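Hey, quick one: can you model this chain's 3D structure?
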Amino acid sequence: MSELVRVERNDAAGIVRLVLNRPDVLNALDVPLAKAFRDAVEDVARAGGVRVVILAAEGRAFVAGGDVAAFGADFTRSAEVVNALLDALHPALLRLRAIDAPVIAAVKGVAAGAGLSLVLNADLVIAEEGTRFVVAYDKVGSSPDCGGTWFLPRKVGRARAAELMFLGEALDAGEALAAGIVNRVVAAGELNSATDEIAGRVASGPTRAFGQFKRLTDQALERPLPEHLEAERAAFLAGTRTADFREGVTAFLSKRKPDFTGE
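Sure thing. Here's the predicted structure for all 263 residues.
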């Protein structure tokens, strides 16, 4: 695996941490990093027993966006660079949404541009105090990518999404929490421990049921209620065939805590 993305596995708990490792440029996304990220996500998606994926980053920032220097190195090739970048990132983003394992983003410093889109792609977001979240595309005369225009209105509403894009204002961690982008804000120095604690709780849950929840909520705004009710029915029926469903029902009736295996 490329050193641009460090993969840390806790096989006993089923937790995988993907650490973006380009700290000298605040983990700005260039084509090599994007390809390394895609490959790491693909490996995780194919692996068995993964129950939580943590997205993290080395250094003092999460992701400061795309590597603008690469865009401006040769303007006759800017479109080629953007296409190569997105050809790598799109499969990774879709894979993260498709896998059953919930994805937790552990964010510090700044999440800007495509970095914010990565955060929005996650199921849960834990942010360190002092973190800033900014759309940032207005600064380079472009529109958002990596799902930014899909996720952001769903998280904060269209009016707030437009405000963040048109005015270019950053949200601090507390404001991002209030807006619905962040789930928890933790003190400086506590990001890893807080993320590990939450990841452990999620990893002990019914992973396949969590996957159904991800897919149902992603699709909920795209189809009418009667169709969605049938999708919920199909998901619940599929759940009845899992070991975790049998364990959950048995534990409930026995008045004990369930011991889910993710199967």
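One thing worth noting: The chain has eleven helices and nine strands.
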